[in-house]
Design a protein that fits this description.
By secondary structure, the chain is an alpha+beta fold. Helices cover 17% and strands 50% of the residues. Strand 16 and strand 17 (395-404) form a beta hairpin.
């Protein structure tokens, strides 16, 4: 009886076990199919990766010159930008008086601005990598007098860590303001010390520059330059055949907490001089040395708020002969003069408010002609205030006032400038 009941139970379970087995086979088959699909997908992805690697290698070969200098489409399309700098200028002096308003004892160059509307320049900037070893840069300002090559230089990209070479025509690494383009300045004009010692355009020379970033716990840059010496206020292209100017600089930066940074360092440039920038109908021939000590403090707790305090102290020493080009008589000239500026810029949102004070002959006022001290009058100084509004990162409106007493005659040049700067295209970021 028991055996008969057991056989009946087994007979009833046979259909269910068959159904369970069929279901398991279907599940196993589905898993195998999914695994095969996943394997095929992985194989396709690996093939795609290999193709991308081949394409990358091909681009590297092209950029290295394997298929020609312009073999890579990316290198045939450099970054190009255009910066337009224009302004309205008003002074209590007429244009003739401005042209004659120099800084006696420092430079015989007058003020080039004219009452009314002025175009500083339309500056064309071009940049692109040449290959894995060089980047190429060019700055071509176009003015009403025509176009000129302000900068055209290469920079190495594959030297040992920390080392870089720049060659061509470029703004010297001397000082703080000198290496910046005018549209990046915090004010519409250069400080008096730059106008008196280097000219408002600064030291822009043909030559070669070597910089090195040592591995230190804080940012440090060391640099040296060999330059042609074309700057007419400091040196002059006729002073000596070939390169006759050399410079060196060091810059260090420290973070002071989460929001504050300081940058400081000395610079020096030396060379032979022959020019007529001191006085009309006078030519100086001798040696020139210019020292610079820069300091910048920046506080930036957010993108919408910042404060920058910046200063440079410059000291120039010259020793040589000053020849009267009319009578051909010569006197020995020894002069050691200095100058400083201090400026502050406060930013809130899109607005920036700034103030600057310039002073010449702060500690040194030595101008000896054939051993006799020369007196040119009052010490040159200037006070400046500005307000600007940046509609975007591509457009800026600035209103600036200068109370200028640099003429040494006790007469004030009251200047008002309304400056507009516009930029289009891809432009590299400005340094700190």
């Amino acid at each position: 009886m028991r055996i008969t009941a057991l056989l009946c139970l087994l007979f009833l379970l046979i259909p269910f076990s068959k159904s369970w087995g069929d279901d398991m086979e279907q599940r196993i088959q589905a898993l195998e199919n999914a695994s095969n699909i996943q394997t095929e997908t992985i194989e396709e992805q690996q093939k795609a990766i290999e193709e991308l690697k081949k394409g990358s290698d091909t681009e590297k070969q092209k950029s290295a010159g394997v298929t020609g200098l312009f073999g890579s489409a990316s290198l045939a399309n450099p970054n190009i930008s255009l910066i337009v700098d224009t302004f309205f200028y008003s002074s209590n002096h007429n244009d003739g008086e401005l042209e004659a308003r120099s800084i006696p004892g420092f430079t015989n160059a007058g003020i080039e601005k004219r009452n009314g509307f002025n175009l500083e320049s339309a500056e064309l900037f071009i940049y692109a990598p040449v290959d894995p070893y060089f980047n190429l840069y060019a700055t071509i300002p176009v003015t009403e007098d025509g176009a000129e090559v302000e900068e055209a230089y290469f920079i190495t990209t594959a030297l040992p860590k920390g080392a870089q070479v720049k060659g061509g025509k470029f703004k010297s690494g001397f000082g703080r303001i000198n290496s910046q383009h005018p549209h990046a300045w915090d004010f519409a004009d250069a400080p008096l010390a730059y106008r008196g010692f280097t000219g408002e355009e600064g030291i822009i020379e043909k030559g070669v520059q070597l910089t090195y970033l040592p591995e230190l716990p804080f940012y440090t840059q060391l640099g040296a330059e060999a330059l042609q010496g074309d700057n007419n206020l400091l040196f002059g292209q006729d002073a000596k055949s070939g390169a006759h100017t050399f410079s060196a600089f060091a810059k260090a930066s420290f973070d002071m907490g989460d929001y504050s940074t300081i940058l400081f360092g000395p610079s020096v440039v030396v060379g032979k001089a022959r020019n007529s920038s001191i006085a009309d109908d006078r030519e100086f021939a001798g040696d020139t040395t210019l020292y610079d000590l820069e300091f910048t403090y920046k506080w930036k707790p957010s993108k919408a708020r910042s404060f920058t305090l910046q200063s440079e102290y410059l000291l120039r020493s010259q020793d040589g002969n000053l020849t009267d080009t009319v009578s051909s008589t010569a006197d020995t000239l020894k002069r050691t003069q200095d100058g400083v500026y201090l400026q502050g810029i406060y930013q809130i949102g899109r607005c920036r408010v700034g103030a600057r004070f310039d002073r010449m002959e702060v500690f040194r006022d030595d101008y000896r002609l054939s051993g006799a001290d020369q007196d040119f009058g009052e010490r040159p100084w200037r006070a400046t205030g500005s307000v600007e509004y940046n509609l975007s990162e591509f457009s800026r409106i600035r209103v600036q006032y200068n109370h200028d007493r640099s003429g040494r005659d006790g007469v004030t040049n009251n200047e008002v400038l309304v400056q507009l700067i516009f930029g289009i295209g891809a432009h590299s970021a400005h340094p700190f």
